[in-house]
Amino acid sequence: MSAGLLVTLAGCSNSNNNNSSTQNSNQPADYVKGVSLDKPLKVDKEAGTVTVLTKVNGKYFEQSTRHNSVEQSGTNGAKSIFTAFVKPEDFYNALIEIGAKPGENMNANNAETTHVEGDIIDTKVTWNGANKDYDINEVVKDSNGKKIEFHFGGNLKTAKAKNTGCLSCLDSCPVGIISNSTYTYGAVEKRKEVKFTGNQDVLPEDGTYVAVIYSVKK
Question: What is the three-state SS of 7-54?
């Protein structure tokens, strides 16, 4: 249900992000921040980070979505700003490995009135040629100007049963592994309280490989 980007226009925006003196021209396009299609998940227990390989889905520079990052083979695999190459179960286990604690407070019955709980998960995004690791609020736009705050909801059993592929959702979700506590479920699609889009002034063009780095907020 929830938590992949775009068009040629994006290649003209914020061109500084696409030129880095540190980028190795011999490096494969899918190798970003230590992850690649061969090894799309990296857990660094010492640093307390989980890095996931994703790809920009430019469709959502223009269209709104409640899905931030979804694994490509899930039923929602084409519906997210960032298309992920790591399954929800592996993402969940990786967060557990770095010490994150899930809230496990959501279900289908309470979703529309409940804000997701669990550890707050800092989320950074970077790519080859990026000027820095960008906070999620710099690369995803909330039409109300509110901040995205991801919490480790958990939901592993439901995620496996539903097979949506959702890693991160932009409203509180009983299926996504992490989701945005700022809104309750249904805020985007049902009640139309907010629209979320990828920020094409910052993000690289459609199809660009991107690393998403997760850590427990201190």
Answer: CHHHHHCCHHHHCCCCCCCCCCCCCECCECCCCCEEEECCCCEEEEEE
